[in-house]
């Protein structure tokens, strides 16, 4: 009877070990499934973010290249206005400059 009880105890321990192994395997599989799901969700978020940033980049690129013609025209207008202003100033003082040059050229110093 003692041997039978010892055999039963061993059988009980083996069954408990198998059940524990089954629980550990189930938990490990669940963990792997959660990690796989988290990776897939992260990949999806990364792809969405990348697409959003690419769209934003393309939009800004289109804005800046589309405006380059307008910028060139604006700069040409500003340049022409500045040139006109300088010509006006030069014509206003050109007589004085000519008089000063003539005075210095014709003045003889000893």
UniProtKB/TrEMBL annotation:
<comment type="function">
    <text>Catalytic subunit of the peripheral V1 complex of vacuolar ATPase (V-ATPase). V-ATPase is responsible for acidifying a variety of intracellular compartments in eukaryotic cells.</text>
</comment>
<protein>
    <recommendedName>
        <fullName>V-type proton ATPase subunit G</fullName>
    </recommendedName>
</protein>
<keyword id="KW-0813">Transport</keyword>
<feature type="coiled-coil region">
    <location>
        <begin position="25"/>
        <end position="59"/>
    </location>
</feature>
<keyword id="KW-0406">Ion transport</keyword>
<dbReference type="InterPro" id="IPR005124">
    <property type="entry name" value="V-ATPase_G"/>
</dbReference>
<comment type="function">
    <text>Subunit of the V1 complex of vacuolar(H+)-ATPase (V-ATPase), a multisubunit enzyme composed of a peripheral complex (V1) that hydrolyzes ATP and a membrane integral complex (V0) that translocates protons. V-ATPase is responsible for acidifying and maintaining the pH of intracellular compartments and in some cell types, is targeted to the plasma membrane, where it is responsible for acidifying the extracellular environment.</text>
</comment>
<dbReference type="GO" id="GO:0046961">
    <property type="term" value="F:proton-transporting ATPase activity, rotational mechanism"/>
</dbReference>
<comment type="similarity">
    <text>Belongs to the V-ATPase G subunit family.</text>
</comment>
<keyword id="KW-0175">Coiled coil</keyword>
<comment type="subunit">
    <text>V-ATPase is a heteromultimeric enzyme made up of two complexes: the ATP-hydrolytic V1 complex and the proton translocation V0 complex.</text>
</comment>
<dbReference type="Pfam" id="PF03179">
    <property type="entry name" value="V-ATPase_G"/>
</dbReference>
<keyword id="KW-0375">Hydrogen ion transport</keyword>
<dbReference type="GO" id="GO:0000221">
    <property type="term" value="C:vacuolar proton-transporting V-type ATPase, V1 domain"/>
</dbReference>
<dbReference type="GO" id="GO:0016887">
    <property type="term" value="F:ATP hydrolysis activity"/>
</dbReference>
